[in-house]
Write a structure and sequence with these properties.
heterodimer; A: MetI-like fold; 3 domains; 16 helices; globular; B: alpha+beta; 5-stranded antiparallel β-sheet; 10 strands; 56% helix; 12% strand
Chain lengths: 408, 379
């Protein structure tokens, strides 16, 4: 049977089956099982109405149970058995995974992705939302920044691979990045753009992180009444921002003193450590549009009178943005951040297409795919899938907690 | 309101310029691939795509002369043109790769094996000799020429209608369509009924089910691969379209239920209660009132699911086979990147074929897409 014909048949059977199921099951319930007539009419109506929700829910519950809930437990079970899935090995797979250098490489790059991609996507999204909100061609600009959302990760990888393309010295560079790179010759312009500017930016970022840590510490000192978890949270936040700040300081020194190979075309995707950032650029490029759309709606929801009051008090544009608008949309920023975090945890296509995990760019999802389908090791593969699940769990709990709070 | 703060002209200009820079930065990568897909392989490897619109001077790859030998005035002559139909202007040329710029246009040289070669500015050449050149190996010419901008649809023609083995983008296009349309339509109905029950019917455990759906939204589908493959094998589906449709349906349901429930819960209570008072059953309320009113949410989800199934790589890799009749566009593209990573004319045209449909859907239905994002920004 031709697949296209099979597709049409499936649509007809699927849709017809759904409608038929819902129609006839309701009919059966009302006319045969609990008919609304005779001496028990009232009781029957009540009974039918108790059962009806479950009729409506049944197909969805079966699909969700079979395709999402059952696999979590089945994968958990598989992760405790050996390669073939027959002999119980306890935590053996996890132990074996911990000894593999590739696994730790994947964990390290995933950690890097988790910090950089949500942060930069949200930051660019916020910037784009604020910039395009008040200009007349803002909607066109938004459309164009949002567009990469529609492009597949593989398609985006092709697009960016052209940017990172390398030709041998002496030939014309057809990759945009190498073309720009070849313009730098080590003169004062290069020093300004490639040493001073990054160092200043990183130092500024470090200062921002330090300031954030200081704010959190100060809040911790001042607000003795705060709950235990709030205090722990503030302490952890301060420690993390101090750490990130410290890293930024080290990088700023690195940027200022790095010995750059001017004049030689670079194979960007094979430069250890930094190639991770070239891969991340693809995801940031895609996710910024998402962040922009959500944050732009949130910015428009900021009450006008708070901005008016700030203007009357003499606040400038930057103060209005950072002190009035951003604090009021903090909830939305968190939602955007966590949503992108989940995308990052599952990132697979980009790494698969651009480097396939070589040159130190392995990530968890690709590591898992390699284990499952290249090495056919279902035990270790499932164990690494469970690691991804474990990393998602805090966000899952947080989302459920918020949803329940909203329901009340 | 903001215009008070933005009344300084300098600031307004700064905003315009920064926004334009940002848009350019976001547009350039796609533009590069689009422009490249309309250039020949030689053009792509000869110069960056940003130079495609300007006339440029470049050294052409070696061209071997060919033509019919005629006798003219007692000499044997072969005449022809280096560029068949194209308009390039030659500045310098040479006959070996060590010195490709030896002669100016219009000059003549004597080849090592006897004949004289003259090359004009427009590419016309004349090769003349006192003896026949039928047995001679024809010389190669290295030319530096300026070529005006030129675009071609040949790449699209090649990848769509004359594919070499393993590059069947046209077939992959149909396969992708086959995957994504049923996988978009089937979950909608199932989810709509469930969403109605969760939004408007009273029963014990409702809150728990809603929480479960929210939780399932973020469960990585990586966990589902092996157990579901085992399950499909055990019930006899194996690898194939049916398996992909079922998998996409299952994976799409949480978002569908979540989006639709949120939307339906926001519909006015009066309408539904009035209908109930008039004696409508839940089934009638759902099909006659809720479903038509929920059209925007249904459209939002349909777009999400379509983009997601069209762009998906992982589910197709795992649940579909790898034969020509089952390869989807993303999979084909992945293979092309591996096997023909340097052939940008094939790669760029193929990539644009795969991007075209989602982009069209995106620009036509952006309103619904944005609405859906705002309603359920979790997935």
């Amino acid at each position: 049977m031709h697949p296209a014909f099979q597709a049409i048949l499936t649509i007809v059977i699927g849709v017809g089956g759904c409608i038929g199921y819902f129609y006839f099951s309701n009919l059966f319930l009302d006319k045969v099982l609990f008919p609304a007539r005779g001496e028990n009419a009232g009781r029957n109506i009540n009974r039918a109405n108790m059962i009806r929700p479950w009729l409506f829910l049944l197909p969805a519950m079966i699909a969700l149970g079979l395709y999402l809930t059952y696999p979590v437990f089945a994968t958990l079970k598989l992760s405790l058995f050996d390669k073939s899935g027959e002999n119980f090995v306890g935590l053996g797979n996890y132990a074996q995974m911990m000894t593999e250098a590739k696994f730790w490489e994947a964990m390290r790059s995933n950690a890097l992705w988790l910090v950089v991609v949500p942060a930069l996507s949200t930051a660019f999204g916020l910037l784009a939302a604020q910039l395009t909100d008040r200009i007349w061609w803002g909607n066109i600009a938004k459309s164009l920044i949002f567009m990469p959302m529609a492009i597949s990760f593989v398609g985006a990888s092709v697009i960016w691979k052209l940017i990172y393309d390398t030709r041998p010295t002496g030939q014309a560079q057809i990759g945009l990045l190498n073309h720009i790179w070849m313009q730098f010759d080590g003169g004062w312009g290069s020093v300004l753009l490639l040493r001073v500017l990054p160092a200043v930016l990183l130092a500024g970022f470090a200062a921002l992180m330090g300031w954030l840590a200081w704010l959190l510490i100060r809040a911790l000192m001042a607000d003795r009444a705060g709950g235990f978890w709030l205090r722990i949270g503030r302490l952890a936040g301060a420690a993390i921002s101090a750490l990130i700040g410290l890293v930024a300081v080290i990088w700023a020194f690195g940027a200022a003193t790095a010995n750059l190979p001017y004049g030689a075309p670079q194979q960007w995707l094979t430069i250890p450590f930094w190639n991770n950032f070239f891969l991340m650029a693809v995801l940031i490029w895609i996710q910024t549009g998402f962040a922009m759309v959500i944050l732009s709606a949130a910015l428009r929801g900021v009450p006008e009178d708070t901005i008016e009051a700030a203007i009357l008090d003499g606040a400038n544009a930057f103060q209005i943005f950072f002190k009035i608008k951003v604090p009021q949309i903090m909830g939305t920023i968190v939602v955007v951040w966590t949503t992108i975090t989940i995308v990052v945890l599952k990132v697979f296509d980009i790494v698969r297409a651009m480097t396939n995990g070589q040159w130190g760019t392995q990530v968890l999802a690709n590591y898992m795919y390699d284990k499952l389908f290249t090495a056919s090791d279902w035990g270790v593969g499932s164990a690494s899938a469970m690691v991804i699940m474990l990393l998602v769990t805090p966000i899952l709990v947080w989302n459920v907690y918020n949803a329940r709070k909203e329901m009340r | 309101m903001d215009n008070i703060a933005g009344s300084k002209p300098a600031l307004v200009w700064a905003v315009h310029i920064s926004a334009a820079l940002l848009v350019a930065l976001w547009l350039f990568p796609t533009l590069g691939l689009l422009v490249s897909s309309f250039r020949t392989g030689d053009q792509i490897s000869g110069s960056g795509w940003w130079q495609a619109l300007s006339t440029q001077e470049a050294q052409l790859p070696a061209i071997r002369l060919k033509g019919e030998e005629v006798q003219k005035d007692g000499a044997f002559v072969i005449e022809g043109n280096l560029f068949d139909g194209r308009t390039s202007t030659i500045s310098r040329w040479g006959i070996n790769s060590r010195d490709p710029n030896a002669f100016a246009a219009g000059e003549s040289t004597t080849l090592p094996d006897g004949p004289t070669l003259t090359l004009q500015e427009d590419g016309a050449f004349a090769l003349s000799s006192t003896s026949t050149m039928a047995e001679m190996r024809m010389p190669r010419v290295f030319a530096t020429a300026t070529t005006p901008p030129e675009f071609t649809l040949q790449n699209y023609n090649n990848v769509l209608f004359q594919p070499k083995a393993g590059q069947g983008v046209g077939q992959a296009f149909l396969n992708t369509l086959t995957v994504s349309i049923p996988a978009t339509i089937i979950p909608i109905l199932i989810a709509a009924f469930a969403a109605y029950a969760l939004a408007w019917m009273e029963f014990p455990g409702r809150a728990l089910l809603v929480a479960a759906v929210v939780g399932l939204l973020v469960v990585p589908l990586q966990l589902a691969l092996i157990p579901l493959l085992q399950f499909h094998n055990s019930i006899g589906i194996g690898k194939g379209y049916l398996g992909v449709w079922l998998a996409h349906t299952g994976f799409g349901l949480p978002l569908a239920i979540y989006l639709l429930r949120n939307y339906m819960a926001g519909l006015p209570r009066d309408i539904i209660e009035n209908a109930k008072v008039d004696g409508a059953t839940d089934f009638q309320i759902f099909t006659r009132i809720i479903l038509p009113l929920s059209f925007p949410a249904l459209a939002s989800f349909a777009i999400f699911q379509f983009l997601w199934t069209w762009n998906d790589l992982l589910v197709a890799l795992v649940f579909l086979g790898s034969g020509d009749d089952q390869m989807v566009l993303t999979g084909t593209l992945l293979n092309l990147m591996g096997s023909r990573g340097g052939d940008w004319e094939i790669l760029s045209a193929s990539a644009f074929v795969s991007i075209a449909v989602p982009l069209a859907v995106f620009f036509l239905m952006q309103k619904y897409l944005v609405r859906g994002l705002l309603a359920g920004s979790v997935k």
